[in-house]
Structure formats: structure tokens, C-alpha cells
Design goal:
The complex is a heterodimer of chains A (289) and B (356). Helices cover 22% and strands 33% of the residues of chain A. Chain A is built from seven helices and 15 strands. In chain A, helix 5 runs parallel beside helix 6. The longest helix of chain A has 17 residues. With 356 residues, chain B is of the alpha/beta class. In chain B, the strands form five sheets. Chain B has an eight-stranded parallel beta barrel, surrounded by seven helices. In chain B, strands 5-6-16-13 form a four-stranded antiparallel beta sheet, with no helix packed on it. The interface between A and B is large, with 40 and 46 residues.
Chain lengths: 289, 356
């Protein structure tokens, strides 16, 4: 898989609850993309004063007619860059690089999977659910958000999952509370063997903890797609790092764009996010300088 | 340089692509003047899907240190108008892992490697330079914008004597024949005096400029945006500052090859640095915006030169320093034999006053 940079024609910008979804013709991106990967989008046009790309996980891809594949991603207007994106109209062109990052690893044998999404972080889980079902996996879904309009993909989830549980912080839809409150029950009920999650970091940490405590502490694997702030998306800027434990047991400040965004939940040093653990590779040298 | 005929041709016109883009950086001749800037291309590999890295001048690697370094906590980056602040803290694998993996990849893929080295003491710089002997290195760039642990954290690049000591130590230990460039910080009172010190200490050339220090404050949290508080400002926001530094150093040291760095986004921007006196350019922050930028800017610079009638990049280096010429249109009649103009008739001008 080799990422490509394309000048993609916007097909649509649609409201999706509190979010927006943009569909772009992105030949080469769509054909290669796998669930969990993302695109990095330039914002502001040719003379933009905003130099950093905005990274969005891929919601879905499609092959369409003579134009080649299309890519759809979901975003929320959080600043000037996303406001510019929200102002694009059909036939406008956006500069997209993708597909980027490591996708979700699929089970080698059919397994019972619980997919947990927070807010529009749920976007990559639907492509994942498709891929899992194709190889014979059972898929159950838990979606959570602060409020009902911030639940993303409720209809998709109901269509494709064996069961769906919803939570909202304010109780405006589903159970009042967090996804991690209902997850233990879902694991028990479905006899789950693996958890996939995408959403805010605090949610991913809580889901990882629930996974490790499942079945009386025996635990089940949790794969999380992290949301770290990125500048380039392609692995050159060293901005999107987080402390991750490697196969050799050594913690390194690891790029979420090329070594992630999907990690095994138990490899992330959740207690040290935003910091450099003292035992991380090369941390002692920093203290000396 | 004085013989060059400069044709003011519009950029929109069709251009011949046969411009000799080769340039010299001390004893290193390269076929193209565009390099990636240190810290903006990792060690090159990640940009291979977007650029033919063997066709551009080369890759200046992220600064390599003796030991692996974790870098600083996050957030490490803040977007600013036409620029960004970074506080990465020179995260890197250390020289040994770099030689085993990164430098080998560059050599295997025929990419010219300009290795940036950084140390906390003169001795560390010397050890790094020595370790590069026998390695496939095209050029060594000395990142002297580091705190000197032996001098209360004073940055080498801000003190002419400390900068010279580092350059001299690197030159003594570096592989023979590999040019050594010192990369200067703009955060000094007189960049020419630092440049002169480095050249007197043996630098074969200079890279101008490193980032300039800035701070961004998050008005929501009411705290500095970066975990490291201060960060290096880069991108088009600093381009005039960088062009000024290249201009001043080229004016003072016209025979010293310079690499121009700072906010280059297009071939026109690169041309600006060449005109100011740069023999080559490095593109950095723009890569975050456009990973294809190195190849694109190389092609754009070629077109800019062709459109102005240059057969060779070398003929444009420092050209903006020439004295302003009296412009005489080519089709003007020779002076002296014009018909005398009739005496103009002056009339009284009358105004219709505006109603108030």
C-alpha cells in the first residue's frame, strides 16, 4: 500500500447530526483504503495561511463510475480549517493524501467482536464491521456520545450489527452514562472475544481497562484507533507521538500516523499521555540536556 | 554574472525545460538545488511515495545525536498564521541506529544524504562527525542551534566563539572531502559576525536559517499551547527574515556557498533565495502541507529560470545584488536625431467644485 496525493473533486457535503460528512473523488485512495486508515486534507486553498493538514479517519469508500473511487470522511467544525472544509461545495477541489496509517488487524478466524465508538470517532467502525462480517465474525456495537445529536452512525449500526447499545452523557438517547458503563454487560451477553474502539482518548483508556478486566480478569484483546493531533499525517513531523510499549518491552514516543493510529490498547501508556515517561527510550538524555 | 541578459518574460509563456540546474556546495556538485530541510523529512523514506528523492539535490536528515532521544512531551506543534511553532526536542534514534537503518536506506535508493548532526557539547559534535567517516554522506550540516550543556545552556549558534569551536571540531573529525555546512540561527544581533566566525573556523558553507523562537498562547486554557512553552517558528511567515539573512551574509561573504531556508513554498520563493545569494535551497514546513513539495518546487524553479531566459541556475545566484540598471527599451531610437517636440500648450485648468 502506497499513499497517494490527489486533487479530489468534492461530490457532497452533508449534515450528519452535529457533524458533517464530505465525499470526495479520490482515485487511488479509495481503492487501497482499509478500515482504520485515514486521510490528511489540506485546508484553505492554494494560498492558505493554514499549513498543517487535517487528519480524518475514513468513514467509507466506494467505487463509482468513470471517476474512480470516492472517499467519505466525517468532521466537526472546530476551527478555521474545518470551517473552510464545511464551506466546500460540489465540484470544488480538495487536496487529499491517503490512505495513511496502519489499519485495524482482523482476526484470522471468525470471532465475536464488539465495536465501540465515541462521537464521530465511530466513523471507521462501519467499514470495519463490513470487513469483519465478510470473514464470518459476529459484530455487536456500542455507540456513545455527550448528547443524542452527537451519536454518529446509529442507523448504520442497527443495520449491520447483531445488537447495538447506545449511551449518552445526558441520557437523551439510550442509557445515561459512558460506553464503558455498558460494555461489561455487552461482553458477557455476547461472549465477546475482541474489542475494537475509536473515539476520544479518555474513552479508549476506559475501554482498554474494561477489556483487560473481562471474564474475571482474564481479559480480551482491545484494538484502539487513537485521535492524536497531527501536522503532516505522513510520518515526517514527529508531532503526533504518544508513549507506546514495543514488542521488546521498551516504551518509545511513537508516531500515531505511521505506527498507528491503531494500537493494542494495553501497549499504550495511558497514564503518561501528553508526557514522556521517565523510562521511555531516550528520556534520560532529555533530562540531562 | 555581468554578461547575463535578463529577459523579463511572463511566467505564463511556454518555457524551455533545458535549464542546467546543477550547483556546487563546496566540493559537492549536485544536479539540482532543492533539498529537504532538517526536521521536515525525517530521514527521507516517508517522502518516497511523493517524490523522486534521487532527482532532487538531496535529503537533509533530521538532526542526529549520539544517543537516542525521546523528544519533548506533547503538544509539540501549534499552527500560526502562514507558519507553525514546533517543540519536538530533537527526537531521534541516535547515531548508531541512524547509520544502520536510515542512512543505509538513503544509500540503497541513491538519495544524496546531507546528514544533520546535533550535540550538547563540542566533544559530542566531534564524535558524531568522526562516526560519519566511511559512510555514504554527501554533506554534513552542523545544527548549532542547540544548548551547550557546558555553558549554562547557551545556544552555540548565538555565540561566535562557541559556534566556531563546534565547526572547527567537526572539520577536524569529518570525513575528508565532505563539505561541512553550519546551520545558523536568526536569533542573533549580527548574523554576519556568526557567519564569519564559522567560515574562519573552516565551514565550507552555511545553511540559513534555522527557526526563530516564538510562543503561542491558547486563549481557552490561558496557557502556552506548546508543552515546551517556546517553539521554533517556521513557514512562509519567516521568509522575508530568511531572505534578509541570506542577503546580508552573501553580501559580506560572496564566495561562501549558502543554502537558503525559510518558508519556501513555490519555485518563485526558491528563486528569491537564489537571487539573494543562495546556491541551493531547502524546503521544510511546506512538506507538511504538501508532501510532494520538494519535486514540485524543483520543477517550478526550473520553469521560473527558463521563463527568464536563464540557461543555468548558477547565473542567477546573488543576482539581486547587482546595482539597479538604467532601463532602455531595445526598440528606442538612438538619442540625438529625434524631431524636436513642439512646445506644449498649457491651458488653465478649471474645476467644478463638489456640492457640500
Amino acid at each position: 500500500m502506497t499513499p497517494v496525493q490527489v486533487q479530489g473533486e468534492v461530490l457532497s457535503v452533508k449534515q450528519a447530526g452535529a457533524y458533517l460528512s464530505m465525499t470526495v473523488v479520490a482515485s487511488g485512495v479509495a481503492e487501497q483504503a482499509r478500515p482504520g486508515q485515514f486521510v490528511a486534507v489540506a485546508v484553505g486553498g492554494d494560498e492558505s495561511a493554514m499549513l498543517l493538514r487535517r487528519a480524518f479517519s475514513i468513514y467509507q469508500v466506494a467505487q463509482r463510475g468513470v471517476y474512480g473511487g470516492t472517499v467519505e470522511f466525517v468532521f466537526s467544525v472546530a476551527g478555521k480549517g474545518t470551517a473552510w472544509l464545511a464551506g466546500r461545495r460540489p465540484h470544488d477541489v480538495v487536496d487529499i493524501v491517503g490512505p495513511l496509517g496502519r489499519p485495524f488487524a482482523l482476526p484470522k478466524e471468525p470471532a465475536r467482536c464488539v465495536l465501540v465508538g465515541g462521537g464521530y470517532g465511530a466513523a471507521p467502525l462501519f467499514g470495519l464491521a463490513d470487513a469483519l462480517r465478510k470473514i464470518g465474525c459476529r459484530v455487536d456495537v456500542v455507540l456513545g456520545a455527550a448528547t443524542s445529536d452527537r451519536l454518529f452512525g446509529a442507523l448504520d449500526a442497527k443495520r449491520m450489527a447483531a445488537s447495538v447499545a447506545f449511551t449518552t452523557d445526558d441520557g437523551s438517547y439510550g442509557e445515561q452514562g459512558r460506553v464503558s458503563d455498558v460494555l461489561p454487560e455487552v461482553i458477557e451477553r455476547t461472549n465477546a472475544e475482541v474489542i475494537y474502539a475509536c473515539g476520544p482518548m479518555a474513552m479508549l483508556e476506559a475501554v482498554t481497562r474494561v477489556g483487560s478486566e473481562a471474564y474475571g480478569g482474564a481479559g480480551i484483546p482491545v484494538r484502539v484507533a487513537v485521535e492524536e493531533s497531527m501536522a503532516c499525517g505522513v510520518g515526517v513531523c514527529m508531532t503526533c507521538v504518544l508513549p507506546v510499549i514495543g514488542d521488546d518491552g521498551v516504551t518509545r514516543m511513537t508516531r500515531s500516523c505511521v505506527d498507528g493510529p491503531v494500537f493494542a490498547g494495553d501497549r499504550i501508556r495511558w497514564d503518561s499521555l501528553g508526557a514522556v515517561p521517565a523510562d521511555a527510550l531516550g528520556a534520560a538524555v532529555m533530562a540531562a540536556h | 554574472m555581468a554578461d547575463v541578459v535578463i529577459r523579463p518574460i511572463g511566467d505564463g509563456e511556454p518555457v524551455a525545460a533545458d535549464v542546467d540546474m546543477s550547483t556546487s556546495l563546496g566540493r559537492l556538485d549536485v544536479p539540482d538545488p532543492v533539498f529537504t530541510a532538517s526536521g521536515c523529512a525525517a530521514a527521507g523514506r516517508e517522502l518516497a511515495p511523493f517524490n523522486d528523492l534521487s532527482a532532487i539535490g538531496g535529503v537533509v536528515t533530521k538532526s542526529i545525536q549520539v544517543e537516542p532521544r525521546s523528544g519533548r512531551p506533547t503538544p509539540r506543534m501549534a499552527e500560526t498564521p502562514s507558519g507553525m511553532l514546533n517543540s519536538i526536542g530533537l527526537q531521534g534514534p541516535g547515531i548508531e541506529a541512524f547509520l544502520d537503518k536510515d542512512l543505509r536506506w538513503l544509500a540503497d535508493n541513491d538519495v544524496r544524504a546531507a546528514v544533520s548532526i546535533a550535540g550538547g557539547s563540542v566533544d559530542e559534535f566531534a564524535r558524531l562527525a568522526g562516526r560519519l567517516r566511511g559512510q555514504p554522506v554527501a554533506l554534513i550540516e552542523v545544527n548549532i542551534s542547540c544548548p551547550n550543556v557546558e555553558d549554562r545552556g547557551q545556544v552555540f549558534a548565538c555565540d561566535p566563539r562557541a559556534a566556531a569551536a563546534v565547526v572547527a571540531a567537526v572539520k577536524r573529525n569529518a570525513p575528508t572531502g565532505v563539505p561541512v555546512f553550519a546551520k545558523l540561527s536568526p536569533d542573533v544581533t549580527d548574523i554576519v559576525s556568526i557567519a564569519t566566525s564559522c567560515v574562519e573556523a573552516g565551514a565550507d558553507g552555511l545553511s540559513l536559517i534555522n527557526t526563530t523562537l516564538g510562543i503561542a498562547i491558547d486563549t481557552a486554557t490561558m496557557r502556552p499551547t506548546l508543552a515546551g512553552i517556546t517553539g521554533g517558528l517556521s513557514g512562509p511567515a519567516i521568509r522575508p527574515l530568511a531572505v534578509r539573512c541570506v542577503w546580508q551574509v552573501h553580501a559580506a561573504l560572496p564566495d561562501v556557498p549558502l543554502m537558503g531556508i525559510g518558508g519556501i513554498r513555490t519555485g518563485h520563493d526558491a528563486f528569491e533565495f537564489v537571487l539573494a545569494g543562495a546556491s541551493a535551497v531547502q524546503v521544510g514546513t511546506v512538506i507538511f502541507h504538501d508532501p510532494s513539495a520538494p519535486s514540485r518546487i524543483s520543477a517550478e524553479l526550473r520553469a521560473v529560470l527558463a521563463a527568464r531566459g536563464f540557461a543555468r541556475l548558477r547565473d542567477a545566484i546573488g543576482l539581486a545584488h547587482r546595482p539597479p540598471a538604467l532601463r532602455v527599451p531595445e526598440d528606442a531610437d538612438p538619442p540625438g536625431d529625434e524631431e524636436p517636440e513642439p512646445e506644449p500648450v498649457r491651458r488653465e485648468v478649471r474645476f467644478e467644485e463638489a456640492q457640500t
